[in-house]
Design a protein that fits this description.
Layout lengths: L1 E6 L5 H10 L3 E6 L9 H14 L3 E5 L3 H10 L2 E6 L17 E5 L2 H9 L5 E3 L6 H6 L12 E6 L18 H14 L8 H4 L4 H7 L12 H26 L5 E4 L10 E3 L8 H7 L1 E6 L11 H8 L4 E4 L4 H4 L7 E3 L2 H12 L2 H18 L2 H12 L1
Parallel strand pairs: 1-2, 1-3, 3-4, 4-5, 5-6, 7-8, 7-10, 8-9, 10-11, 11-12
Helix pairs in contact: 2-3, 11-14
Amino acid sequence: MKILYIEWASFGNEDMKEAFTKEGHTLVCLPFSNKDTRHDEAVEAEIASAMHLEVPDVVFSFNYFPLISNVCKKENIRYISWIYDSPYVKLYSYTAINPCNTIYVFDKELYLEFHNAGINTVHYMPMAANVERLDKLKPSVSKDQKFLYDISFVGSLYTEKHNFYDRMTNLSDYARGYLDAIMAAQMQIQGYNFIQASISPIIEDLQKALPMSPNPDGVETIEFLYAQYVINRKITGIERIDLISEITKTHTFDLFTHDPNYMMPNLNNRGRVDNYQEMPLVFKQSKINLNISLRSIKSGIPQRAFDIMGSGGFLISNYQNDFLDYFTLGADFDIYDSKIDLINKIDYYLSHDDERIAIAKNGHDKIAKAHTYRHRVREMLDNVN
């Protein structure tokens, strides 16, 4: 097949392009920078011209773009998109039902939300890892120094630009207390998120403190915007800091994050790492890699988890239901269900090297067998055929 690849600064570009090519498909890349624009006649004309020139069988992009979908609908060309962000408000655009669309989401519960509403253009597909590439990345240390870090986490603390919550400085005392209560309750529960269903009583307070509104071409609710883009991010940040604080009471912890200024005792803040080259080396050289999922992910397996296991790293994650569809608990990875449980498992695995290394190998081999980008390309294009 001939693929018109809509290329922007997304995660996974090189791995996905390599997968298309190695599966025998012809790839034509079209640069795309208007990610937030839902209608632009000049950009739409440029994309249409590329379609006329190249005559592709399929258009592909990471994440879904209403503008591209409308061009594909007009030109009668199949548009495949694979969403890896959560939340992703453009999924709620009216254009999602365009018959040209095949939209993949990595969260089964999110897929079911659309399926149960009778929308047949949204499908479920977990994320992936390029194990062949990851296996070639070798740490530049001796065999005796294989593990540089005992416990590590790569990810945001949401203390940076994404922290919309702390911009709400003029909330009423009632609204602030209400939020404190539901956030504290949500932090005690894994596998179910009730924030969006709980904030209607204070929605006017939230709108006054941080004005937001749904897009004219979308069906997302105002509750969705505040719950997923504001409150769940704040909960995630609090949760990550809380868990790291607990771990550092008894262990040294290595953090790789965008905020270089965050410090606490026994914490090594090593700053940001490059996702493509540096991050896999962290996973390979950590005895324990943590996944603490963003709370807006309902049941899906985050990309971080695929990258950890695909790199051969040992993974401990919070509970996400989709894990159990593909991986065996205690054989391929492990989960924690509370701070105490996490500390106990950290202590256990740091003192059981052989078991930890065997689990990491099982996880790696399972990714290699069924969860690479080439596997995903086959599934996508088989469905088109």
